[in-house]
Amino acid sequence: MDGSACQNPSVRAYYSDRFVLPLPEGHRFPMAKYRMLRERVIAELPGVVLSEPEPASTGQLALAHAPQYVERVCAGTLDAAEMRAIGFPWSPQMVERSRRSAGATIAACRAATLDGVAVNLAGGTHHAQHARGAGYCVFNDVAISARVMQSEAARGRRVLKVAIVDLDVHQGDGTAQILDGDASVFTLSIHAASNFPLRKQTSSLDVALPDGTADDAYLATLRDSLVAMRWRFEPQLLIYVSGADAHEGDRLGKLKLSTAGMQARDRTIFDFAEALGVPVAVTMAGGYGRDVATTVGVHFSTVQCAWQSWLRRSGRAVSAIGAIAADAPAQDASPASRIG
Fold this sequence. Notes:
The protein has helices at 32-44, 58-61, 67-75, 80-86, 92-115, 141-155, 173-179, 215-232, 259-276, 292-314, 317-327; strands at residues 11-14, 48-51, 117-120, 162-166, 185-192, 205-209, 237-241, 280-283. Helix 1 crosses helix 10 (292-314) and helix 5 (92-115) crosses helix 6 (141-155). An 8-stranded parallel beta sheet has the order 2-1-3-8-7-4-5-6, sandwiched between helices. The chain is of the alpha/beta class. It has 11 helices and 8 strands.
């Protein structure tokens, strides 16, 4: 199915923020943003139904990662240098959260093929390579999910063509490395040229932007890149690695997109997928704002845009938005009423 006709009465989103890493005081990874994002979705987007995903299985992880690497991560036997590259101290919570985050993207891809759009409220761990982690990324949920969806399609003797559009400010180097040479997957990465990682990999299409790139130049580049991808590839599933770190308020980003520019970026992706009738699964990826609430706001806007795309695909945009706004004060105030 192409995902143009929605089967579920609401857009589905998957969360894994219950699995919190025990990080040392002062660690710069913004762990709280995932809980804050989920809480804001509950409060402001009653049209989104939340579910906690199953963890990715060892077999699913091995579709994108070396089995020995998966085994060593789970057993806690990576060496000190390997853990430094990941950026987290090892813990059982790190393993479980990483598996759940990958499971959430798998679940979002499956839901998107039925409903048109679905969201992982985390994920986008695009620096993890075939046999190593890096940059706060243990398992590459994006590559894993692409391979899981393709393996499921293969059971029906179908070849599923997957496009991965990565707009995180850092290159999706792990995704590119894992999927290098696979003609059934197209990897597009638009990122800051001078940013991490220092050693870039080769995506199907890489666009490296100069520091300080702002809204107009960025959006023109994005549109041109999507057209270039479409000339070379006909996707049947799109995985969107959104990222909040191209925002001008990000500590690590080096680009200068405004809040309005980030929203226009998201609309461009959803409009593109809608025009092709292609389902889209969304991941949040990076975001390191000076104020974590700003990062959460950018991620929230992406989820909101996904919900609006789902409404358009289901033909409910005008009536549903009005009805939800009118009914919101009278709805059950319990967050658990919307968590599957």
